[in-house]
Amino acid sequence: MHTEVNSESPFGGPSVPKCRAAGLLGRDSELDTITGLFRAALDGRAVSAVVVGEFGMGKSSVLTAAGELAEAAGFTVAIATASRLETHLSGGVGRQLIEELTHTPADPGSPRPRTPHAAEILPDHPPRTEREQTEALDAFFHTVRHAAEQGPVFLGIDNIHLADPWSMRCLAYIRHRVEHLPVMVVLTSLIGQLQTGEVALLEMSGCTPATIRLRGLRTRHVAEFLRVSLGRFAEECRKVTGGNPFLLGALRRRLVPGMDLDTAGSAMIGEVLRVRMHEYTAAPKMLEAVAILGEDANFDLLAQLAGVDEITALEAIDTMVRVHLLTNSHRPALTYRFVRNSVLADMPLATRAVTQSRAARLLHDAGATPERVGAHLLEATAVRIPWAVDVLRLAARHSVVEGDPELSVRFLSRALEERLSERKRMAILLQLAHAEFHCDPDSAPARVREAIDHIDDRETAAFVATAMILSLCCGPDARLAINSAGQFAARLDAGGPDAVWPLLCMTYLAEAGSRLGPPPDFRDFEQQWAPLNDPAAQQSRSGLLALDTVRSGTSSANAVRHFGEALSGEQPELFEQPYFFTLATAALADEPALTDKLCQVLDTERLPWDFHVPKGALATLARGIALQAGGDLVRASVHYESLVRQFDERGVTSHCPVAVLCAARLIETSVDLGRHDVANALLDKIDFVATQALFTHNYLLYARGRLRAATGEPELGYQDLRGCGRRLEHHGMRFPGFAPWRAHAARTALALGRTDAATRLAEEDLDAAERWGAPRIRGYALTTAGLVRDDGVGEEAERLLTKAVDVLGGSTAKLALAEALTELGVLQARHGQAEKAIGTLRLAARSSKHCGARPLARRAAEALRDARTSLTTAKDNEHGLTKQEYRVALMASQGLTNREIAEALHLTRRTVELHLSGAYRKLGITGRTELTSALGRSQRVDAD
C-alpha cells in the first residue's frame, strides 16, 4: 500500500510532506495488525493499539494511513498530534480530538447537529476545583460517546509521550467508560520514553493493547525508496541508517554516484538530535562525545570529554540507550553510522578539531594504541599538537606492518603539518618516502631528495639514513633504503669519514644481505678505517672484521675476538642489522658469555628499527639459536614458536629476513625433535618465491632439505642441501657453521648409495671445520667423516668417531655429542665390540633423550637392545659372530650374491657388505670362498 501521507519529524514537530512516504514502505504487516482490530470495534467493543518505534521510524505515517483505512471502513476519525513545544498547554491534544469529532459529519453530505465548541468543553487552563474537573472530564466523555452513538470512532494520538497532562487524564477517564462502545484508540510513542506524568500509558490504552513495534525497512524497501538497484549498495545503505525512513530520506537528498557511505551524514539530522536531546541533562554533550570518540568510546573517557561527572554521564547514556540512540553495550556507540556522521557534521569545524585533539590526548594518556590515537589526530586539523608527532610516526609504522601504506601516508602527512625541526622533518620525509613507495613507487625518490634538502646536521643526517637502512630490510624496500643511503652518503662525504662511516657500514651490510651473489668488496671499507678514532666507529670496524672472518671461515678464535670487541660498548644497531645478526648468532652460538652479552645489547626497551620485528624478538631468537646449538631442543623450539606466531600475526613470515631465519630454525629443530608434522605445516605457510631475494633463504633451503631427507624424500632433500651449498659458495660464504649443509648432504648421499659423493662432501666439510676450529663444528664434521669412511674393517671410522666424541665432550654441544656417541656405539656393535657398544650406546640414549631428540634417542635405544642381544649370542659362538652376521655369512656360503641376500633380509647392499666384512674378520678369513669351511669348522667345534 502506498498512500499519499505525511512522514514524521523525529522530534515531534510539524510533519514533513512526503510523496509516497518512506514510512509506509514495508509496513503492510503493521497495518494489517491495526485493521485486524476494526471488526471488534465495528461489533461494538472498544479496542486499542500502541505503535512504538525510535526517532524517525514512521510512527506518524503508520497512524495517518491507519486513519485513512479506518475512514474507508466507516469510522469517524479524529487524530491529534502532541508536540514537545505544546506539552505545557492544558488540554491541547484533547481539544484537537474534540474539534475533529464535533466538525466531522457522520455520513458524507449529511451535516451534524451543533455540539459545544472544544473550548467550551476543555478550557485553556486546567480546571481548578474538583467540580470543574469532573464537569470537564464528563464533557469530554459525552463528546466521544455522542460520536460513538452515531457510528464507530477511531481516536488516534500521535506522540502520546509528548501530550499535556490534562489530555492524558481525559483519555484515561474515558478508557473504561467506552468499553462497550465502538471506539478504537491508537497511540504512537517513542520507544523507551519514560512516563513522568501522573497518567501511565496503560491507563490511556487499556490493559491489553495491541503493541506494534516499528523496525527498520528491509533492503528491498530501502532500494525502492532510494531508487537504486537491489544489491550490495542498497544493503550498505540499510546498514548505515538501520533502515530508518527519516534517515533514508536525508540520505536520498545527498545520494550521488560513487558516494562513500562510511562518511555520509546530514548536518540537519545532527541539529535535530542535538535540539531533541536538550531536554535531558548533559545529553547533547554526551551525544557529541560518543560521536567524537567512535569505537574508542568508554564510560570514563566519555564523561571526561563531555566535562560532566559520572552520575550525570550515566543518566544521559541511560536515556539515549532507552530511546535507541545509543547501542545497549558496555562500550556506548551511536546506533547507526549515518547518525554519528550527522552529529559530527553539525559541529563547527573548529569545535570539532579541538574536541578531536582532546579525545586524542585522553586516549593517549589512557594507553591506547598509536593507531587509535592517530585516527583522532587526523581529524584534528589546523590545531597545533606538538606531542602528536611521535604518536603519528608510530601509527604510520604500524600501518605499514599491517599492510595499509595509504593510512601510513595520511599519518605522516598530518605529522608534517606540525612545527618541526629540520632534523625531525627530514626523518618524517624519509619515513613518508617508504610509505609512498608502497602506494606510488615513482613518488618515493622525490621525497628522498626533499629530505636531503633538510640536512642541517651531518651526524643527525647520517643517523636518520642509517635508521632507514635498518628499518627497510627486504626486497624492494631494501633497494629503496640502499639507494637513499647512497644519496645521503654523497651529500655527507665532504664532512670526512667520521661523518659518513656509520652510514657506509650499514649500507655495506644491507648490500651484502640483500643479494644472493657475492657481497661488495670488503677492501673498499678497509680503506676507510685509518682515519677513524671514534670508539663507536672502532666498534663497527671490529664487527665488520668479525663478519669478514666468518665469511672467509678462517678462524673461530679471531672471529670471537672481533665480536667481543664489537660488543664492548652499547651500540646495538650493528647487531640489529639482519645480515650481521644472522651470521653473528651462528658464530657466537658456542660462546655462552658473548651470547649473554649479545642478548643484553639486543634486549632494549625501545622498538627495533625494523618495523617487521616485534620488540625483544632479536634477543629471543639469539637465545633460541644458542639453546639449539647446545642441544636444548625443547626450550629452543619454545623460543622459535613464540616468535613465529608474532611474525604470522604481522603477515611477514615470508618477507622479513629475521622471520625467515626464525621459521627455518624452527623447522630444523622440529626435525631433530621428531615433530615432522609441525615442520611440514610451517613449511607450507612460507612463500618460497617471496624469500628468494633474502640471504636467509639459504638457511630455509637447508632446513627443507633436512626435513625431506628425514621424511622419506632423500633425493629431494639432497637437491635442497646441494642448492643451499651452491648459493652459499656463490655468496663467498666459507663458514661451515652457518648451515652445515655438507654434513647432511654427505649423509643423504650415503643413504642414496652415492659413496663417492658422500666421501668428497665429508672431506670438504672436515677441512672447513678444521680450518674454523670451533669444537661443535669440528666434532660434527668428524662424525660425518666416520660414517662415510667405514671400509668394513672400521678402524678408521672408529678412530674418527672416537675423536669426535673427545672433541665434543669438552664443548656445550650436547646434541652433537649424543649423535657422535650413537654412531660410535652402532659401529662398535657392528664390528663385534658388544661390551664397548653397550656402554657407548647407554650414554648416547641418555644424552639424546635429555636433548629431546626423539628420533636419535629411539635409534640409540634400538641399537642398545641389539648390542645386548648380540653380546648374549656371542657367548655361544666361538668366533663372536652376531646373529645377523651369521645369517648373512651362511647365505653367502650357500652361493647367494650380496644383492640376493639384501633382498631376502630387507637390508641395503652396503649393510650386507659390512656384515660380511665383520664375519671375515672374526672368522680370520679373507673372502667368501673360505666361508663354508670356516663356518663348518665353527659348527664342529660347537658340536664337540
From TrEMBL:
Q: Name one GO molecular function term.
A: ATP binding
List membrane-spanning regions. none
**HTH luxR-type domain span:** 874-939
Q: Does the keyword Nucleotide-binding apply?
A: yes
- CDD domains named in the record: LuxR_C_like
Q: Which InterPro entries match?
A: AAA_16 (IPR041664), P-loop_NTPase (IPR027417), Sig_transdc_resp-reg_C-effctor (IPR016032), TPR-like_helical_dom_sf (IPR011990), Tscrpt_reg_LuxR_C (IPR000792), WH-like_DNA-bd_sf (IPR036388)
Which BP terms in the Gene Ontology apply to this protein? regulation of DNA-templated transcription
Disordered: annotated span = 103-126
Annotated Gene Ontology cellular components are:
cytoplasm
Which SMART domains does this entry report, sorted A to Z? Answer: HTH_LUXR
What keywords is this UniProt entry annotated with? Answer: ATP-binding, Nucleotide-binding
Extract the PANTHER family matched here.
TESTICULAR SOLUBLE ADENYLYL CYCLASE, TRANSCRIPTIONAL ACTIVATOR DOMAIN
Question: What is the protein name given in its UniProt record?
Answer: LuxR family transcriptional regulator
Protein's organism: Amycolatopsis decaplanina DSM 44594
